[in-house]
Automatic annotation (TrEMBL):
GO terms for biological process: cell surface receptor signaling pathway; proteolysis. GO terms for molecular function: metalloendopeptidase activity. It comes from the Eukaryota. Pfam families: PAPPA (PF25900), Peptidase_M43 (PF05572), Sushi (PF00084). The keyword Calcium does not apply. Belongs to the peptidase M43B family. The keyword Disulfide bond applies. SUPFAM superfamilies: Complement control module/SCR domain (SSF57535), Metalloproteases ('zincins'), catalytic domain (SSF55486). InterPro entries: MetalloPept_cat_dom_sf, Myxo_disulph_rpt, PAPPA/PAPPA2, PAPPA_SD_C, Peptidase_M43, Sushi/SCR/CCP_sf, Sushi_SCR_CCP_dom. Keywords: Disulfide bond, Repeat, Signal, Sushi. Residues 752-810 form the Sushi domain. GO terms for cellular component: extracellular space. It comes from Octopus bimaculoides. This is Sushi domain-containing protein.
Length: 1075
């Protein structure tokens, strides 16, 4: 904002030129550091003077850079860089592209993933990113790469399709032809009988018949109007505000979900007074039938209330809104009057609102009356006897003959305007087609489930979807990963179904002993022995891991040098070829989102340490972490007996570690064979040539099937377990050496474990365990009742429990009468009610639904899963508190409740002022202040807390105010309430008023200073020690298992064990202790 700067910002430059972009794409030229910058079609400025494309004057038209404008046009039409999914996203981003995809990266599956590359060739083979590489057959000649103009020469078909979609969907005002968009794909056959065939097609991607920015673009098929806010007002926004302006909440949503995006409106401060709201206006005043609000940050507890202002001067409230950041909050409305504006109140200053949408009733959307419906003409060859029109995207031709040839095209009709014809479908009646429920080999189908829907395992083209398998005719498709059945081709890929996999020719070992740095060990909080053996195959890598299943450093001292390490030792020293690390957490937290690292060292038989990986970045997306071991051939080989892992952060959690070696590679043992010995590579031992060969005893392992080549030296036995049993070790072969089966004592077949079963409203008892052939029985948790008779389940051979023949169902008794309310739902007056049942009550006269507007008298009680009724209650209608300057000057019959009569008599006057609290919750009139001598004034406020100070207290006559605040910004003034607890004044001051009796209200001597609460950390699911105190309502439930959102306590810091304990006296845990 300096007045003498010699440059313009991009927005200032475009604003100064002020070239409208509503009907065309603007191209700007500027001398700057970037080659070009384009507006994407989903940005809100796409039609304004701030849209368009800027290119550098120094590179435009220069040989070798001629295609840069084409590159920017690609962005204008919705294309990302071809390297977007690799170079422009973080390694842990869920949208990172590891293989060609329509859903990740640049959203085109005909461009291979690549790193950013300015050369006209593939990147060097040494280039790596996020564990990916080398990159081959990359699209460096694509216009959306960073190669020079002499190299780039094409868009891919999918890129062309994406650009056409945005032209039809977004840039209709730029199109010069006023024709309906055509049906873009060939119609598809979905059903056929002897005398009929049914076709479906997708509609055109736009209408484009009413001209630029027509209201018809906002009209839905039923005649209702869909509109976003066109104006906004936020009193808290300052003129100097740079980010999170109110304008960001206008128009359709464009912010990234679940992030504090600058494309949203935020209050942007810690406090939230009555002015913490944003008010929306709409272009068309309509009767609403549906409202949607996009809250992308602080969504769960962000919206305090939604207020509707109607054209007749009345208002109504929607009440508190519990939204989700990844989807809009949507509610149906039941109004019969037009809305003028909507005000959204927020609970704190960091609620991100991206957009608000209203959908009208069809009758109130008069602007849609002139919009013509879309009709589809089905054109056939041979022709129909008369033209065929339909408003649906499906048509059944009932005049076909078997073996006859037909062609079908679709034409879109809107009013008297027609689109071009769709591509033609050529069909002879009786031919096979995708969707007929039979897998047709001549059509190269891999499945056919009898429909043409994607997402059910079999695509609309009758191909099996990723992660699915389909069997039978018609095909039954299922998601195979995680179904509990280990299929043959899953052995190396599905940990959940098949357990830990060791490739043929390799051997894996799990640790048999573990030791961590004693400075950061504290029993029983972080025992190292959880790393002994294999971890649970159901273990997941996440931000806050369960410490009962993983190891994580504890006893953290942030003021000392933190040396976090753990040493893991294995039964047999081997020549290591790989280390596999299973993560419990990658260490990323809300307060520490940066990358974390592990340092790996090998410990040999002589306790010498060799570095393997100095800085290995750990990310949950790449769990488990495979680290290959490369041996220096200029040095002797060594055998590894242990591994040392050093962690860069105490937030990293380890679930398990595998040491991998080769079964047949051992260059050390042959060197130690004596003169009368030879090395047997099969048994990997030195064998004495002079001794007679020894036979091994027959191998016996319970619950197994054994197949052996013999019992002589070097013979092999292969072990497989019977149904219902599984090997306890990755090794399934043993070798006969020196008369005994090598390491056979380590192998056993253990029964599969079905794990403890779970079912709603039940308690299971498994006295004999949960393994194969064991039984469990269940009982219903009161008040749930049993439906069925058989309460026993059996652990079966596939590791799953047998089918349950009974279940527990929760009921509620008929709801008890609600105080001051009448039951309106007849079905709720008698008998028991199932969980989820809602019963409607109506508050009696003089009462209203608590927490809602005084006009709202209806409330609902819901039968919950615990067999209890929950819902709002009726509260007496109350009027606003009388102004504080009248404190102790008046008398009321019933405080400020409806019907209360209040009187006030001024000193020296005979006339009594009377007001009454009306049924609507408003006073009949307001008191008028008495006349006092000009010398009448309140004394200076007397403060007892030395941390307090007075502010703006120079006026002390009746009605004047004085602010009390704390000296430190980390504290705020508070008053004791009637219950002895304290409340928070979110303006960080207390306002005193000089009353008519010449005393300050409230009493200044009652004010004290308390440390402020971290508002953003309240009720966020993480226990914060600074908020775990009465003043902050015990972190609003985050530190107790019975009150935390999500049912699991998550500690902000692993060191706050005592300060983060459950201290809320009203929590169930503490109530149980007191009993």
């Amino acid at each position: 904002n300096l007045p003498f700067r010699v440059y313009l910002s991009m927005d200032e430059y475009k604003t100064a030129l002020n070239v409208n972009g509503s009907t065309h794409l603007n191209v700007y030229f500027a001398s700057w550091s970037l080659k070009g910058l384009a507006t994407f079609p989903w940005e809100k400025n796409v039609y304004s003077s701030l849209g368009g494309t800027i290119v550098d004057t120094n590179s435009f038209g220069v040989p070798g850079k001629l295609d840069e404008l084409i590159h920017e046009f690609g962005h204008n039409l919705g294309l990302w860089h071809v390297h977007h999914g690799v170079s422009e996203l973080k390694c842990n981003d869920r949208c990172r592209e590891t293989e060609p995809s329509l859903e990740l990266g640049d959203l085109c599956s005909d461009t291979l993933p690549t790193i950013q590359n300015r050369n006209c060739r593939d990147p060097d083979s040494t280039v790596r990113r996020c564990g990916m590489g080398p990159f081959k057959n990359t699209p460096f000649r694509n216009y959306m790469s960073y190669a020079s103009g002499n190299c780039t020469d094409h868009f891919t078909p999918q890129q062309v399709a994406r650009m056409h979609c945005y032209l039809d969907l977004v840039y209709q005002p730029w199109l010069t032809t006023m024709k309906p968009s055509p049906v873009p794909l060939v119609p598809k056959v979905v059903a056929a009988t002897v005398t009929s065939v049914t076709l479906v097609w997708i509609p055109g991607l736009g209408e484009n018949v009413y001209g630029p920015h027509s209201e018809c673009d906002m009209c839905l098929e039923d005649g209702s109007l869909l509109q976003y806010a066109s104006s906004a007002r936020a009193p808290s926004d300052s003129k100097r505000k740079i980010h999170w302006k109110k304008e960001e909440a206008l128009g359709p949503p464009d912010a990234e979900l679940c992030k504090a995006s600058r494309l949203t409106w935020m209050q942007e401060n810690d406090g939230c007074s009555e002015k913490c709201y944003i008010e929306f206006g709409f272009k068309y005043i309509i009767i609403p039938q549906r409202i949607s609000i996009w809250v992308v940050w602080e969504a769960a507890v962000g919206i305090k209330n939604v207020k509707f202002y109607f054209v007749d001067g009345t208002t109504d409230f929607l009440g508190p809104v519990k939204a989700f950041c990844d989807m809009p909050f949507t509610a149906r409305l039941n109004y019969n009057k037009k809305v003028k504006k909507i005000r959204v109140y927020t609970n704190n200053g960091y609620v991100g609102i991206d957009a608000i949408q209203l959908v009208s009733t069809p009758a109130s959307a008069r602007v849609c009356n002139s919009c013509r419906p879309t009709k589809y003409q089905v054109i056939r060859n041979p022709k129909f006897p008369r033209p065929v029109y339909t408003s649906n995207t499906m048509f059944t031709d009932r005049s076909v003959k078997r073996g006859a040839n037909y062609s079908y095209t679709i034409q879109v009709n809107i009013g008297n305007k027609k689109s071009t014809l769709s591509p033609s479908l050529y069909y002879y009646h009786g031919q096979p087609f995708c969707g007929n429920g039979r897998v047709e080999s001549q059509l190269a189908e891999s499945c056919d489930d009898g429909n043409v829907h994607n997402g059910d395992g079999c695509t609309m083209h009758c191909q099996v979807e990723k992660f699915y398998r389909c069997k039978g005719t018609p095909s039954l498709c299922y998601r195979y990963d995680g179904d509990g059945v280990c299929e043959k081709d899953e052995e190396g890929s599905s940990l959940r179904d098949c357990g830990f996999f060791t490739p043929p020719g390799y051997e894996d070992q799990w640790p048999i002993s573990v030791s961590g740095n004693p400075q950061h060990q504290k029993m029983p909080e972080c025992p190292e022995d959880v790393l002994i053996g294999a971890p649970s195959r159901f273990q997941e890598c996440k931000n806050n891991a369960d410490l009962s299943d993983v190891w994580q450093p504890c006893n953290i001292n942030f003021f000392s040098d933190n040396d976090y390490w753990v040493k893991l030792y294995f039964k047999r020293p081997v020549i290591a070829i790989a280390v596999i690390i299973y993560l419990g957490s990658d260490g990323r937290t809300y307060d520490s989102p940066e990358n974390k690292f592990i340092f790996i060292q090998l410990i040999d038989s002589n306790n010498q340490v060799t570095d393997v990986e100095r800085k290995l970045m750990v990310v949950c997306n790449t769990n488990p972490v495979h680290v290959s071991i490369f041996h220096d051939l200029s040095k002797p080989f060594f055998k590894t007996k242990g591994i040392k892992l050093s962690l860069s952060s105490a937030n990293i959690a380890i679930a398990g570690v595998r040491l991998r070696s080769s079964e047949n590679f051992d260059p050390i043992t042959p060197e130690n064979c004596g003169g009368d010995e030879f090395y047997n590579p099969r048994s990997q031992q030195c064998v004495n040539q002079t001794c007679p060969p020894m036979l091994c005893e027959p191998l016996v392992i319970r619950n197994s099937v054994i197949s052996c080549t013999g019992r002589s030296e070097s013979d092999v036995c292969h072990i497989s377990c019977m149904d219902g049993y599984q090997l306890n070790y990755a090794l399934n072969e043993v070798v006969c050496a020196d008369g005994h089966w090598q390491r056979s004592e380590e192998i056993s077949c253990l029964p599969v474990d079905c794990r403890l079963p779970s079912m709603v409203h039940t308690t299971f008892s498994c006295p004999y365990g949960t393994s194969y052939k064991k039984h469990c029985t269940f009982t219903c948790n009161p008040p749930a009742q049993l439906k069925g008779t058989n309460t026993t389940i059996l652990c079966e051979a596939n590791g799953r429990w047998s089918m349950v023949d009974a279940y527990c169902l929760t009921f509620c008794l008929s709801p008890l009468p609600r105080p001051h309310a009448q039951l309106m739902t007849r079905s709720c007056t008698h008998g028991i009610q199932q969980a989820g049942t809602r019963c409607r009550f109506r508050c009696k006269k003089g009462f209203h639904t608590e927490g809602l507007h005084t006009k709202r008298r209806s409330l609902h009680m819901t039968c919950r899963e615990n067999g209890q009724w929950s819902g709002r209650r009726c509260a007496r209608v109350k009027c606003a508190t009388i102004a504080p300057e009248f404190t102790r000057m008046y008398n009321c019959t019933e405080q400020n409740y409806e019907g209360s009569k209040c009187t006030l008599m001024c000193p020296g006057e005979r006339k009594i002022q009377k007001i009454k609290c009306l049924q609507k919750g408003i006073w009949s009139s307001n008191f008028k202040m008495c006349h006092f001598p000009k010398t009448s004034a309140c004394p200076l406020p007397l403060l007892h807390d030395h941390r307090l100070r007075k502010k703006n207290c120079h006026k002390r006559f009746v009605g004047s105010t004085c602010e009390i605040t704390c000296n430190s910004q980390m504290f705020q003034p508070v008053l004791p309430n009637m219950n002895g607890t304290t409340f928070t004044n979110k303006d960080y001051n207390v306002k005193l008023t000089c009353t008519g009796i010449l005393r300050w209200y409230p009493n200044p001597s009652d004010i004290t200073c308390k440390q402020i609460c971290q508002v953003r950390a309240l009720k966020d699911g993480w226990c914060d020690s600074s908020n775990n105190r009465p003043f902050c309502a015990w972190d609003q439930g985050d530190c107790c298992l019975s009150t935390v959102r999500g049912g699991k306590i998550q500690l902000v810091s692993p060191t706050c064990s005592d300060k983060c304990a459950c201290k809320d006296p009203n929590a169930i845990e503490n109530n149980n202790r007191s009993k």
